[in-house]
Every structure is written in C-alpha cells, then in structure tokens.
Amino acid sequence: MQSTQQSQRRILALPDHLISQIAAGEVVERPSAVVKELLENALDAGASSITLRLEEGGIKRIAITDNGRGIPADQLPLAIARHATSKIASLEELENVLTLGFRGEALASIASVAVLSLTTRTAEAPHAWRIENGAVTPASGAQGTTVDVQDLYYNTPARRKFLKSEQTEFGHCAEVVRRIALARPDVTFSMSHNGKVVDHWAASAIDKRSATILGDAFATARIALDEMAGPLRLHGFIGLPTASKGRADAQYFYVNGRFVRDKLLTHAVRAAYQDVLHGDRYPSYVIALDLAPSLVDVNVHPSKIEVRFRDSRSVHQFVFHAVQRALAQTSATAHGSVPAPSTADVGTLAPQFGSARTVGMAASKAVLHKPLHSHLPTPARIIINLRERSLAGLRKRPPNMAPCSNRMKQINKGFPATSELNPTSKPTTNFL
Ligand SMILES: Nc1ncnc2c1ncn2[C@@H]1O[C@H](COP(=O)(O)OP(=O)(O)OP(=O)(O)O)[C@@H](O)[C@H]1O
Ligand SMILES: [Mg+2]
To answer: Most Cβ neighbours (<10 Å): which of 9, 82, 148, 240?
Structure first.
C-alpha cells in the first residue's frame, strides 16, 4: 500500500531554500564549519586583520569582521544566493582556481540554517550597507565586511541535537582558527568567546606565529625544512622527538595554503619519523606542500579537508624523503659535521646548509663512526641514539623488522604506480 502511494508522488524540483538546507548539512556540519567558511571569505577578500566574536561555542553567535575589500551594494543579494561567486566565471577558471577552493554556496547554506546578516563597505562607497532578511539598507561601518551568524540550526532542531557542549564546539572553532592563522601569519587574528578575549595574534612571520600557537616545546625543538623536486616544494617546520606528543594534535599540513588532513601525507611524515620516534608518540609539525593546482584536486570533500593527488605515489615519496633528510640533518648538526644553528636561526637553516641530501649523508657517516656525544643537549642525543639503533638494526636486523628496502615497499604499497609529474609546471606558494 505504502509503495503504491509513493509511486504516485509527482517528481518536483526542490525549492532553493530546501536545496540550501540540504547543502548546509554538508557544508555547515557544526559552528567551526561556519568559522572556516567565513575566515576563508575574509582572506579571499584580502583582509589583513580579522576579528572573531563567538558566543556559546559559536552556536549562539559567530560574528567575523574583516578589513578586506568589501562587497558593492548592488552585489549584496547575490553574495548570499546559491551558486553565486566572484571566484570563477568559466570552466577554464574553475580548473585554475588558486584561491581557497570553490563551491559558491557557503553563505547561502549558512543563511538557510541560521539568522545571517552581512554588513559591508568597499573603499569607494560613502557608507556601509547591510543585508538582513533579504533587505538591503544603509548602515555604518569601516571598509570591510562583518558577517553575523546567530542561532545556528534554529529552524532545524534535529540537527541542533547533534551539537556537542559549548566548550567542545568552541574547541573545534578555536582549532579552525589556529589552522588558518598558521597558514596566514601575515594576518592579525583576534578572537573573543562570551565577551572575553581568548587569542590575539599580531601579524608576524611563520617562525613566530608557529611558536606562539604550538608553544615553547615546539619553538625550542624544531627544524626548518625547505625542499624542492620538480613541481613539488615542501617547507615549514618539523618538531624534534622532544617536541612530540601523546596525541596527534600538533600536526598542521597544508597543500597550496589550505589545511588538509590527508592519510597519504600523514603516513609519509609518520614513516619518516619511524626511526626516531616511539610508536606511541606523535610528531609535531607545520609543513606546507606547494604544487601546481592541476596536480591536485581540492574539491573532493565538502569541507575541502581531503585532497586527491594526480600522482600520489610521487608525492608520498617526496614528503617521506624530505622529512627523513631533515631529521638526519639534525643529527649531523649535533655531531659537528655542520655548524650548530641557534634556535633563533632556524628560519634560515635550509639555505645556510645547502642540500639536505648532502647533510643527511654526513649524518649517516658521523653516526657510523660512533663519536662521543654525551655532552650534547638532550634532543640531539635522543636523535643520535635512536638513529644509531636504527643503523645498527640495518646491520643486524631484529627478526620482526623487515629490511629497509622492504619497509619502503610496504610504505609504497597501496599507492598507484608512478606516472611522471609534469616537470614544467610551477609550484605555488601561499604559505609562509
Ligand atoms: N568577507 C567578504 N568580503 C568580501 N566579499 C565576500 C566576503 N564574503 C563573501 N564575499 C563574496 O560573496 C561571494 C559568495 O561567498 P560564498 O562563501 O558563498 O561563496 P564562495 O566564497 O565564492 O565559494 P565557497 O562556497 O567555496 O566559499 C564570494 O565569492 C565573494 O565575492
Ligand atoms: Mg566562501
């Protein structure tokens, strides 16, 4: 009976607000997703300073003010319409989109599940304009945009039930801000929660921003990394074993300036640390991979957190070897094979010491000659000890450890065969 009734129902095109609500389920998973979309918009608008005001973990309110270029009054209704964007105008541009990815429906999705108002002013406008409930009215305000999102999921109570406690939701929001602030140290970020300022990070360089956000343990035990191979560049900071943690919560990996949590990349880094880190410890790092946009698809996941590489195996190998060499470089430094850098100098490590490959070879030799190193500071000693153990392991392998070449095979297992990466395409750098 039921099925007969269903088969008689007419096929209807869904109204726009319902389509937006469906899309919102993917884009606006929780308050932190709103924070992410609004921050990306502010950065796309060229903001150099962004202020976030959150209430009740972002569930009650998320108001984000930027000093970017603003939106002309006549385009305001379009800004919150579905599939309206200033990012692309053609399929060709979609292929080459270099900004923070594209869906063109973030504001529309948010507006469909929360009370949204947007106040904006361009450099040319004599005053600001506000759009609220579809009406555009004059307003006051400086150049830039404020998007004010209140009462998330007020009209979809079923979704609201899935939200966690205020503190948990705030924690997710704060993590999104950290991810973006690390990618854009040149931008000032201020954040308040329930009227109290919780973070204020003035514009600075990546070494200072990462030290502020990841803390002293990372700031005093990290290695600068900068390697290129064909169209790939990997740069940033990786923590020494002393900066490792019991949880994987200090791992920031960026692809073309966007934070990603990608299994392939996480695996490559973890494998590179294999010889220097116990299995229950997680390395800390802030690293960026830059490559031609055509070699990576960033739109495979609604929140753009996963990526797909055209040649995933080459990317894995490149990341693995670059991180491994940088770790070896430190053990060489600790042996006096190369001058020891001060922590204040880490930003200039890579150019100062030339190719990491050469330094890595020096490291291996130094370790094989077993110099005395008990006078060295603890982080360096740990690396050397672990490295010695692993080199000894290569000479006399424990029964449960596969030979090095086999381990590399295991690492590569499961990834598609290598096809040559396009050597002519240039990497993009929008991190650091
Ligand atoms: N803070 C802002 N400052 C200036 N313009 C903005 C701002 N926020 C949104 N806009 C304008 O509104 C348009 C729509 O924004 P929306 O976030 O909905 O889509 P999008 O950013 O184009 O794509 P995506 O879905 O990937 O975020 C943007 O393309 C931009 O032109
Ligand atoms: Mg957007």
So the answer is: 240
Q: How far is the CA of 277 from the centre of ligand 2 (A)?
A: 39
Tokens 């600075």, residue located: 204
- Asked if 182 and 213 touch (Cβ cutoff 8 Å), the reply is yes
Angle, CA of 371, 376 and 381, to the nearest 5°: 75
Cβ contacts of 14 within 8 Å, gap of 6 or more = 22
Strand partners, 308: 297
Element (H, E) at 119: strand 115-121
For residues 265 and 393, give the distance between their C-alpha atoms in angstroms, rounded to a whole number: 26
CB 350 within 8 A of CB 226: yes
Distance between CA 5 and CA 101 in Å, rounded?
A: 43
How far away, in angstroms, is 186 Cα from ligand 2 center?
20
What is the C-alpha to C-alpha distance for residues 35 and 172, in angstroms, rounded to an integer? Answer: 10
Tens of pLDDT, residues 385-428: 444 444 443 333 333 334 444 444 443 343 333 333 333 333 33
Looking at residue 123, its amino acid is A
Ligand nearest to the CA of 82: 1
- Scanning the structure block, which residue is given the tokens 């590179």? 272
| Joined tokens for residue 291 | 């490559």
DSSP bridge partners of 253: 260, 287
Beta carbon of 119 within 6 Å of any ligand 1 atom: no
Q: Is 68 in the pocket of ligand 1 (CB under 6 A)?
A: yes
What pLDDT was estimated at residue 391? 41
Best CA proximity match to 286, nearest among 334, 337, 231, 323: 323
- Which residues are registered as beta bridge partners of 136? 131
| pTM of the predicted structure, to 2 decimals | 0.75
